[in-house]
Amino acid sequence: TLSTQTDYRDGEAQTDPYSPEYVVPSGSVPELLTLATLTWGRGLPAGLAEVEMIERAREKRAWEATLPAMDNALQIVKRRKMMNDMERKEWAFREQEIEKLQEVRLEVLKKLLWRREKNQKELHAKRLDDHWQNYQKAKEEKVKKIQHDCALMLRKLIAKRKNVMGKLERRDIIKEYTDFASQTYAPLSRIGYFPDNHSERYVVKNFYLNTFAGLCELEASLPDSVTQVKIKAPKPKYTTTETGFIKRSARLEVDLAQVHQ
């Protein structure tokens, strides 16, 4: 009629099934005692192999009950022959079990070998792929270098063909100024032009900004409206109309001022 509450769940408090103590009456051999070697997790709960083992034990007990008594020599010979036959059957059964176990182990070994071979194939494929990628990169770089050298040689040949006979050409100023890629707009350093050497010529030099006399002259040339600021006072807003009425906005401002006070 009482209940208890624990801090553990059923899965944490679960133990092996309880096996109570037992007393065997004299003169009786219960069949259940033949399964005393089976425990929970080691044969229990019983499966197909345990059921087959129980059936074989029953057959062996039934066979032992049919053995003849050792009263005379004929019974002894018959008993020995039956025992030899049973021993041969047991050995044959044991060989079958060994063969089954070997087949299971062979299957496991096949699976392990197949898995190892698969891993080796994947590793070899990855290595070949890496080598192929490296060779492809080297090939692309080599092709790029060949193309670059080819373009360079073509430009050199084109430049040489322009003046095959070595004749002097007059300068075409109009063509140079119309072409923004010419030496006039974009001179090259390889012909001896370095724009950084004459960078000071791009600095703006102004007489009116760098000298005091120029500043005075610039200030004198400015009109009076720039140097002398004129401020006009704002005209007050008319709160009344031409007819003498007060505007609504003016009334609102007065009301707001009173509320604020």
TrEMBL record:
Compartment annotation: Cytoplasm, Cytoskeleton, Cilium axoneme
Gene symbol of the encoding locus: MAATS1_0
Similarity comment: family membership: Belongs to the CFAP91 family.
Keyword Cytoplasm: yes
Pfam families: CFAP91
Name recorded for this polypeptide: Cilia- and flagella-associated protein 91
Mitochondrion keyword on record: no
Taxonomy, superkingdom: Eukaryota
Annotated InterPro entries: CFAP91, CFAP91_dom
Keywords, in A-Z order: Cell projection, Cilium, Cytoplasm, Cytoskeleton, Flagellum
